[in-house]
């Protein structure tokens, strides 16, 4: 049963992958499905039963056809420019001296709009925009049109003049959650100076959108940018905290779903949340939890909702690979760190996690970005150990400040010290001349070969007599 499900899911994903590069008409996709059904029917009539091999092949063909059909449905779009009036359907973000938001016009077309950085526009505002709509173009080797199209955005407008007509046209729940988020970030800014306020906001609720550009660049060069992108690591800590606070499975599920909505439901957040929710549901149903199955299930749900993220969303790809590394690669690395004493088990865990995840995502990073951090290992070792404490103390300080800023002062001071250490590490290591090395363009086939070799190595290691004995 498990094998049949895995074959179906991977064939579905492969159908999406092929359709991302080669246009398959619905007729071709339907042909795969009809062929598979005819194959099973013929086998049943001819032999009186359906052999396992025939069933698996049929399932693969049907799932491939369904995957390509799902992509075709998502990719269908009749070209049309947005109208001038519509609603702001995303949380506006300040980036590159501008305020950016997704605009959904009255003809249901979406556009990515950039306006003045001090614009008061908010999620749910009905606005009238003035400017020139443009069709997105390729940025060197980056397929920017496909990247935006995954979110149904087919137009952009820069330097737009925005007139707010009315407010309150967004989802009521999301609007309320964003108000809570803005209030919480406001409390953080009241208790912490910059850049510490932005860093703490990034760790807890805002991701890297809250961070100044120069600090982000230092984090990227130091190889610790993942701590401020609301990665699976952050979400796992937050979800575990929520579960312990509520001590009720249903309340925990609701709280985690609300948190996902509040943070914008990005790929890393959704994947991590699905995996955590799978853990909770498994405990509720008295079932054993399997991390690989949970990851495959999370990926399948996300592809079903938006198939374009498989190829055109680097965030999804990197987070999925990093989680695979935690499951399959980190245990291998851990075995080779015997020189680290067991009394330093936390340090050993951080070193293994850093090496395992960095090795796994490195080929994709080199292919998509063109550089990698040489100082990533020491930076992560110096930072990751204190991230849970920084998040907890910072959250407690901001929450307590609603009652009394004076009572929150000791916790705010402690959080400030922890945040200052993170900033210091990123500043010191990120500004070393050789911290980040550029790599020439490499072939996608070479990257595929590297990952294929890695899969074979992991498979052989997991099936080796020594590992099976242990």
TrEMBL record:
One of its GO terms (cellular component) is plasma membrane. Keywords: Cell membrane, Membrane, Transmembrane, Transmembrane helix. It is found in: Cell membrane. Residues 41-164 form the DUF4131 domain. The keyword Chloroplast does not apply. The chain crosses the membrane at residues 12-42, 54-73, 223-242, 254-282, 294-312, 318-337, 349-369, 381-403, 410-430, 442-461. Residues 204-462 form the ComEC/Rec2-related protein domain. It is a multi-pass membrane protein. Signal peptide: none annotated. InterPro entries: ComEC_N, Competence_DNA_uptake, DUF4131. It comes from the Bacteria. It holds the Pfam family Competence. Its main location: membrane. This is ComEC/Rec2-related protein domain-containing protein. It comes from Candidatus Zambryskibacteria bacterium RIFCSPHIGHO2_01_FULL_49_18.
């Amino acid at each position: 049963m498990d094998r049949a499900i895995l074959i179906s899911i991977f064939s579905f994903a492969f159908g999406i992958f092929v359709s991302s590069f080669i246009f398959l008409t619905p007729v071709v996709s339907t042909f795969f499905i009809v062929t598979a059904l005819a194959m099973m029917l013929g086998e049943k009539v001819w032999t009186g039963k359906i052999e396992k091999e025939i069933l698996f092949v049929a399932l693969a063909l049907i799932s491939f056809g369904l995957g390509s059909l799902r992509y075709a449905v998502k990719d269908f779009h009749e070209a049309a420019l947005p109208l001038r009036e519509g609603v702001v359907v995303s949380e506006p973000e300040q980036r590159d001296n501008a305020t950016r938001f997704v605009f959904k016009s009255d003809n249901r077309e979406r556009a990515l709009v950039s306006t003045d950085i001090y614009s008061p526009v908010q999620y749910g505002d009905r606005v009238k925009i003035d400017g020139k709509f443009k069709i997105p173009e390729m940025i060197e080797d980056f397929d920017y049109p496909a990247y935006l199209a995954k979110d149904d955005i087919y137009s952009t407008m820069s330097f737009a003049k925005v007139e707010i007509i009315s407010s309150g046209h967004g989802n009521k729940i999301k609007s309320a959650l964003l108000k809570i988020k803005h209030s919480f970030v406001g409390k953080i800014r009241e208790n912490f100076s910059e850049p510490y306020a932005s860093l703490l906001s990034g760790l807890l609720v805002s991701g890297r959108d809250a961070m100044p550009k120069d600090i982000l660049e230092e984090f990227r060069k130091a190889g610790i940018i993942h701590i401020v992108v609301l990665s699976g690591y952050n979400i796992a800590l937050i979800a575990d905290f929520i579960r312990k606070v509520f001590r009720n499975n249903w309340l925990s599920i609701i709280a985690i779903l609300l948190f996902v909505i509040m943070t914008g439901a990005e790929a890393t957040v959704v994947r991590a949340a699905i995996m955590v929710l799978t853990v909770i549901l498994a405990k509720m149903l008295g079932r054993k939890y399997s991390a690989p199955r949970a990851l495959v299930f999370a990926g399948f749900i996300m592809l079903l909702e938006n198939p374009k993220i498989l190829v055109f969303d680097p965030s999804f790809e990197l987070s999925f690979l990093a989680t695979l590394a935690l499951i399959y690669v980190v245990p291998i690395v851990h075995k080779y760190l015997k020189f680290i004493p067991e009394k330093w088990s936390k340090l050993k865990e951080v070193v293994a996690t850093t090496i395992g995840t960095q090795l796994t995502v490195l080929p994709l990073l080199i292919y998509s970005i063109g550089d990698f951090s040489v100082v990533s290992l020491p930076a992560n070792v110096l930072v990751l150990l204190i991230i849970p404490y920084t998040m907890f103390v910072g959250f407690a300080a901001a929450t307590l400040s609603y009652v009394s800023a004076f009572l929150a002062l000791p916790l705010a001071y402690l959080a400030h010290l922890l945040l200052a250490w993170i900033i210091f590490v990123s500043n010191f290591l990120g500004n070393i001349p050789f911290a980040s090395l550029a790599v020439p363009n490499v072939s996608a086939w070479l990257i595929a070969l590297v990952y294929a070799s890695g899969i074979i190595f992991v498979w052989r290691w997991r099936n080796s007599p020594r590992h099976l004995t242990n």
